[in-house]
Amino acid sequence: MGTPAFAVPSLQSLLDAGHAVVAAATAPDKPRGRGQRVLPTPVKDLALRRGIPVLEPASVRDPQFASDLTALSPDLFVVVAFRILPPQVFTIPPLGSFNLHASLLPRYRGAAPINWALINGETETGVTTFFLREQVDTGAMLFQERVAITPDDDAGSLHDRLAEAGARLVLRTVAAIERGEATPVPQDDSLATPAPKIFRQDCVVRWEEGSVRVIDRIRGLAPSPGAFTTLRGRVVKVYRAARGGPVVPAPPGTVTVEGGRILVATPDGAVDVKELQQEGRKRMGAEEFLRGYSLQSGDRFDEPVNPPSAPRG
Fold first, then answer.
1. Which of 191, 217, 251 is the last residue of a domain?
2. What's the farthest any 2 CA atoms get from each other in the chain?
């Protein structure tokens, strides 16, 4: 059971290992991308190419979904980036239902663990498999794999490495359950931290936070949904940035243009903005941006009072 690209390596690994995947459950087709073409989910696309029956429930609480699943006589449900399942679904298979989560539980429970690990400046994260229970992301843990976060990581690169690590962990978990050697370990709820869904106010670059926090927010939201600020009332997304050294003291958000670089003041030094996108234009590097936009030293990136929706990337 899964929907986005994050779930594809796990399904692929199960198939490549010769496990009998009797069906894949995924979200219904919907308009996707800039052209808003109706396309299958990444999981459905792989399942169809491999000849696997696909279930596309509009609601996981629909009794027909539970009935269809029961008719398959499954031994085990493997859940990777799907929806919150009710007990009448996750209790169907005799060997249980386990989920792959993109964090080292109980840290970063919630919908956006990859983003928040980066936004919060973590240097390590990982993946966890755990048996499902009614409270989200709280079930007894099976296995974990740690993954280092590098200074060059953004949400996109970390997503891809965690998806591959997760596929390995899924195989390890299925094998242990199959052999009857899985030993679930309860989570310590006192160590839990949240990773809620990302909303637009979370995407605003707050230059007053300081250079490290600003850079971590930018990379934690790149490439999507993207951190953003405003310039002369227009939204500008920022995709990549680095520490730029000291600058002349100035209010946070003040720009210094220096040798093709865009340096932005924060309380503890400059942020070197390397890749950005003005609303209605393409994503580009700082030098290209400066050639097409009259940005000058002394201009200021402002935090929106009422943040608009970030532009599409």
1. 191
2. 69
Both ends of the chain: CA-CA distance in Å?
A: 28
The residue behind tokens 């990859």 is 114
Q: What is the CATH number of the domain that holds 269?
A: 3.10.25.10
* Banded pLDDT at 246 (limits 50, 70, 90): confident
Total structural domains within the chain = 2
Q: Which residue has the tokens 């699943």?
A: 69
CB 139 within 8 A of CB 185: no
> How much of the chain, in percent, has pLDDT values that exceed 70?
96
Q: Cα-Cα-Cα-Cα dihedral of 217, 223, 225, 227, to 10°? A: 40
- Supply the pLDDT for residue 313: 40
pTM: 0.93
CB distance 147 to 113 below 8 Å: no
122 DSSP assignment: -
Nearest to 107 by CA among 88, 126, 92: 126
Lowest mean pLDDT across 103-117, 137-151, 197-211, 294-308: 294-308
> How many angstroms separate the CA atoms of 46 and 76, rounded?
20
Q: Which domain holds residue 236?
A: 200-292
